[in-house]
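Dear colleagues,

As part of the handover before I leave the project, I'm documenting each prediction I ran so the next person doesn't have to rerun anything. This entry is a single chain, and its sequence is reproduced below.
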Amino acid sequence: MREPPTEWDAVLFDIGGVIVSLPSIRAGYVDAVEQFAAERGLDPEQALDAWRDRLGEHLKAAEGREYRSAMAGYRKAFRSIVDGGLEDSEWRPNFEQTLRAARELEPHATGTIRRLDDAGLYLGVVSDIDTAEAHRLLKDQEVDTAFEGITTSQAVGYKKPDDRMFEDALSKAADHGVDPARSLMVGDRYEHDMQGGTEAGLWTVAYGGTAAENAGTPDGNHRVDDDYVDFVVDDLADILDIVGVVGE
């Protein structure tokens, strides 16, 4: 088991499942589609099934690690519910408003991010998300000013663990003097975040999802002996302990 650095430069975060609760996002999808169907006298359950099927087809059509815009998928999904054409103005405003209302942050996400920022660490995002949505989400949660570099799959064109995602993120961080060997990648997916982060030279923190499920057993201070996971935490505030940020 390698020894962590005595000083840290940066913490990189995934968004969905790490900063924002995935169940809250999924609940927002359900609410938005059911409202859309009810307004048009359609069966909400059938509409939701059709919406999910069409969105799934859109996303699965990507080749390899190629990224396909989620917003383009939402557009196709809503159009699959109704006969004939459908303008964005007929579904998108309410969809985005409903998602905002439903979204919830993971426990202690805001406080952890702000304390890391106050401590002078570089904070970045590496997420399989549309660029506009990433910025809108972070701004809505009032943590956008804490992040100095945002890497999205829409901007890069590929999904994690494609090395181009991490190369882009670390290129931005390098402008601030960040060394990957003194930086953490916090994620919830074993292959995307843990394997991708490790192969990019980062230390990794598993927070829930397949990342924590597939990691080894913690051995003091959340350390694990795993090829791709260095730390496992069940509370984002534990990241403060890892990087040595103490006090309130």
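The chain has two domains: 10-20+105-243, 23-102. The two ends are 31 Å apart (CA to CA).

All the best with the project,
I.
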